[in-house]
Write a structure and sequence with these properties.
Blueprint (H helix, E strand, L loop, with lengths): L22 H18 L1 H17 L28 H21 L12 H16 L12 E3 L5 H10 L5 H4 L35 H18 L10 E6 L6 H4 L2 H6 L5 E7 L14 H11 L3 E5 L6 H5 L5 H8 L2 H8 L3 H7 L5 H6 L5 H5 L8 H13 L5 E6 L24 H11 L5 H6 L14 H12 L23 H4 L6 E2 L1 H14 L7 E6 L2 H4 L5 H4 L1 E2 L19 E2 L5 E4 L2 H12 L1 H4 L5 E7 L4 H13 L4 E6 L18 H6 L4 E4 L4 H16 L9 E5 L5 E2 L9 H6 L1 E5 L7 E6 L4 H15 L2 E7 L2 H17 L9 H5 L7 E4 L18 E4 L10 H8 L3 H14 L7 H9 L17
């Protein structure tokens, strides 16, 4: 077989391309290695082999990197540590856990409920979790601060079953699984959802790929807190439990290099390799374990394979010619799955029967003994050895690839079946067989009495097994999972910090991005508060003007800066530091959101509030990473999301995939996101201050929000804050910016963000050229106005006996007469959000469709959102109402050459920052 042939993904093919010119000499070398292993053990042999490989490389011997090893356990039997627990006791209550987890889902499927659930994932992973719970996962009362555990979403019934044995949940709670409103007060969420169970779950993981990504950045955030001197996290570990099918998500693998580069040895991935995804095998014709081993090792991780239980040790020790290892290597996953769905006799014939040597090797075993040859992920000793090796390994993150069987122990209808993920309940016979397999004291009569409601099993808190279980948790620092909300009190910045936002830009033109950056700089300078800000940027700091922070705040790098920087002589030199404040994620929006989530939940995870401020190209926020923001909302992340280079026509040169006209609509779908589109720096100051007060102010009651603020790269004169600034209006979403100064027919111009100057220009044109009086309103948040209006409607709907509350937008505009023209640099759906709450005639101008590259003036004329389009639309509405001559709109269209994109004048050129 040459490298690249059909089996190249199974083995590394170290010798496949080279001829063996002296087989006798080769045999002597191999015998020498076998003797070394026999006399000195595998640890010494590993050192010798590594030394030889190193010398071979130095001598330019072409030895390829060994990315894939044989399909056997990484840790040899002679290097396994003694198991420290009482395995018999742990096995007993593990059986109870597996029963209660399955019964929880089964009971939720009774005919009058039928809410679903997943049985097979936890059944196959119970050992992986229980070794962790009994010996490794530290709770928050541990002296080191406790671990963070990302549980596999579909395994949640197992965590509920354990909490039941621990006395944290009752039978009534278990019966509330997936009935969060109808069983309120005794309800359990389907998966790990912190927002739904804020004292139980810490990390949402069921959106595949986000758990791996977030766990990596959680481990990085732990180190960040430590290196910046905010908290000692040196004894905290991050565990992420994942599925082998989940590893096909790009997010699952796409950030592995960060963990390796940062040397995150405080991170362990445990991948439950049951060889199955939701519909069938992960790699029917291949070997997912081998594929993942190569991938992780190539990414710089420490890899530990846990493939075979202790029952295989004797067979492998007697496999002197490696016939058994070869069969293990050559057997593809589809066959391994089939073996566990058949019988011991089938395995004897089709697995061991592949060669005379392996057939003889298993000849002394009965069919039952063959069937009971466990996979490594179900063996306490093997799993414990892997976990211990992982937490003791230094310099690299570790991945444990654990071979398991999906639906393990649930019976032949479940084990390793393609359909097992969708199977929600057990037949009466399944229940009896499962009960017998687990050796539970539940009679046939009890099961037969009501097959839809088999009993949960709990022997009582005074039983030896439960006392043992509880003592293990006490020693390890308390229950896991557990979420706590108490944190260090922080002092928010005072008035002086916001002066830079209120004083405007004088004669200098400055985009709102720059206005925000100036405010951010002063926030970071605050003596008490500034250290808690975590600026997060992808590879665009210079676009946003944040490169000004490099020399002082510095870029976080746990390895420091060990090179001579090319721009070291510049004022704004790129500067990395172990204690750097800026998280610079590179060209990596997904990683940036993961970093944002880890920092924005530090108040709960670590009891130390951090204020993440993620600044990004607006197009690549909610469109690109919306699922991650949804998970951030679930995890109750707090922080600021800054969509820079906002608008469909403001970032003139970049074109279609950079022209954002819809992010506010996408953001509006996330209930945890408070969305703003400010026009001026002073508005930004009011919004940021309100956000900080809401997240960490003493009188706040709704803290778990993220503020999304769009900022632009078009330079304008930033005005001073008005003396009588309408702070409430800015916070709630609208205020009167400039009242008409002339008489005549009246109209109302609403605008947000970069469109406000166009509205002011249109106001002047309407007055000077058409004798129309237009009031200009700055709408800082169309979305918040809509949410307030919908809330008022809901209150009126549910309480018709009360006087209906008037929505804020309706009350604000009660004396504003005439038709409304609403304009933004976003699609029409953004301002249309408030249409139903106004009695006025309402017209929307927006940039619908794809963006393109052009000048700002031409693009705005094309979309008909420029100042002259506002003028014409206002005149049309007034003409329709009979307030001006019906020929006026046509005259205005001709006068401004409205259909000619080259006739547009709205906006200026340049202004990248």
């Amino acid at each position: 077989m040459a490298a690249g042939d059909t089996n190249s993904h199974i083995l590394s093919g170290l010798t496949n391309q080279l001829p063996d010119r002296d087989p006798e000499e080769t045999a002597e070398w191999l015998e020498s290695l076998d003797a070394l292993i026999s006399e000195r053990g595998t640890e010494r042999a590993a050192f010798i082999m590594r030394s030889l490989l190193q010398r071979a490389g130095a001598q330019s011997v072409g030895v390829p990197m060994v990315t894939t090893t044989d399909y056997v356990n990484t840790i040899p039997a002679d290097q396994e540590p003694d198991f420290p627990g009482d395995e018999e006791i742990e096995r007993k209550y593990r059986a109870w856990l597996r029963w209660n987890a399955a019964v929880l889902v089964h009971r939720a499927q009774r005919p009058d409920i039928g809410v679903g659930g997943h049985i097979s994932t936890y059944a196959g992973a119970a050992t992986l979790y229980e070794v962790g719970f009994n010996h490794f996962f530290r709770g928050k009362d541990h002296a080191g601060g406790g671990d963070q555990v990302f549980f596999q979403g579909h395994a949640s019934p197992g965590m509920y079953a354990r909490a039941f044995l621990e006395g944290r949940l009752s039978e009534e709670d278990l019966d509330g699984f997936r009935q969060e409103k109808s069983k309120e007060g005794h309800a359990l969420s389907s998966y790990p959802h912190p927002r739904l169970m804020p004292e139980f779950w810490e990390f949402p993981t069921v959106s595949m790929g986000i758990g791996p990504m977030n766990s990596i950045y959680q481990a990085q955030s732990n180190r960040y807190l430590h290196n910046r001197g905010i908290k000692d996290t040196s004894d905290q570990h991050v565990w992420a439990f994942l599925g082998d099918g989940e590893m096909d998500e790009p997010e699952s693998r796409g950030l592995l290099q960060l963990a390796a580069n940062d040397k995150l040895d405080n991170l362990t991935f445990v991948i439950n390799c049951n060889l199955q995804r939701l519909d069938g095998p992960v790699r029917g014709n291949g070997k997912i374990v081998q594929e993942l081993e190569a991938f992780f090792r190539g990414a710089g991780w420490n890899v530990i394979k846990v493939l075979w239980g202790r029952e295989w040790d004797d067979l492998l020790a007697r496999d002197t010619d490696h016939s058994l290892v070869k069969v293990m290597n050559d057997t593809v996953d589809g066959d391994y799955q089939t073996y566990k769905a058949e019988s011991g006799g089938f395995v004897r014939e089709h697995f061991f029967g592949q060669t005379p040597q392996t057939k003889e090797l298993a000849a002394h075993l009965t069919d039952e003994q063959v069937w009971n040859l466990k996979r490594g992920g179900h063996d306490y000793h093997k799993v414990y050895a892997a976990y211990k090796a992982a937490v003791e390994f230094k310099g690299k993150p570790t991945v444990i690839l654990a071979h398991t069987v999906k639906g393990y122990g649930l019976g032949t209808h479940f084990e390793a079946r393609n359909s097992t993920h969708q199977m929600k309940k057990l037949t009466l016979q399944d229940l009896k067989d499962f009960r017998t397999h687990l050796r539970l004291p539940i009679s046939d009569e009890v099961l037969e009495a009501d097959p839809y409601r088999p009993p949960y099993y709990h022997p009582g808190m005074d039983s030896p097994e439960i006392k043992y279980l509880m003592e293990r948790r006490r020693e390890l620092g308390g229950f896991v999972p557990e979420r706590r909300n108490k944190h260090t009190e922080i002092t928010l910045p005072g008035d002086k910090t916001y002066e830079v936002a209120n004083r405007g830009s004088g004669k200098q033109h400055a985009a709102t991005t720059m206005a925000f950056v100036r405010l951010l700089k002063d926030l970071m300078r605050d003596k008490d508060f500034g250290k808690r800000i975590v600026p997060i940027i992808p590879d665009e700091a210079r676009t946003f003007g944040i490169d000004a922070f490099f020399p002082t705040a510095k870029i976080y790098n746990p390895n420091g800066q060990n090179y001579l920087s090319v721009d070291r002589d510049l004022v704004l030199a790129y500067k990395e530091s172990i204690s750097g404040q800026i998280v610079h994620a590179g060209i990596n929006e997904a990683g940036s959101v993961a970093a944002f989530t880890a920092a924005g939940t530090a108040y709960a995870t670590h009891g130390e509030p951090l204020i993440p401020i993620y600044v990004f190209y607006s197009m690549f926020g909610f469109q690109r990473t919306g699922d991650s923001f949804w998970a951030a909302g679930d995890q109750m992340t707090r922080g600021f999301i800054i969509g820079a280079t906002a608008g469909r026509t403001t970032l003139t040169g970049e074109g279609l995939q950079h022209a954002d006209g819809h992010s506010p609509i996408l953001a509006a779908t996330n209930a945890a996101v408070i969305s703003y589109d400010p026009a001026y720096g002073y508005e930004i100051g009011v919004i940021v201050r309100a956000g900080l007060e809401r997240m960490y102010g003493k009188n706040s009651t709704d803290r778990n929000v993220m503020y999304y603020i769009t900022v632009y790269n078009e330079p304008i004169i930033q005005p001073k804050a008005p003396e009588s600034m309408d702070i409430e209006g800015i916070e709630k979403g609208i205020y009167l910016l400039k009242k008409a100064e002339t008489g005549g027919p009246r109209t109302q111009l609403m605008a947000s963000g970069v469109a406000v100057p166009w509205a002011l220009e249109a106001q002047q044109i309407l007055a000077d050229e058409w004798g129309v009086a237009a009031d200009v309103w700055s709408v800082t948040s169309w979305t918040e106005l809509r949410r307030d209006g919908l809330a008022a409607e809901e209150e009126a709907f549910l309480h018709p006996e009360n006087d209906a509350r008037i929505p804020y937008i309706t009350a604000k505009m009660v004396d504003a007469h005439g038709p409304v023209v609403a304009v933004t640099d976003f699609m029409k759906a953004v301002p249309d959000q408030i249409r139903q709450f106004l009695p006025n005639d309402f017209a929307t101008l927006g940039a619908d469709g794809f963006g393109f590259s052009d000048t700002r003036a031409a693009a705005r004329r094309y979309f008909k959102i420029d100042s002259h389009s506002v003028v014409v639309r206002a005149l049309e509405m007034l003409a329709k109402n009979g307030e001006i001559d019906t020929n006026t709109p046509r005259a205005a269209i001709d006068k401004y050459d409205l259909l000619n994109v080259n006739a547009g004048t709205t906006g200026n050129a340049g202004g990248d920052s």
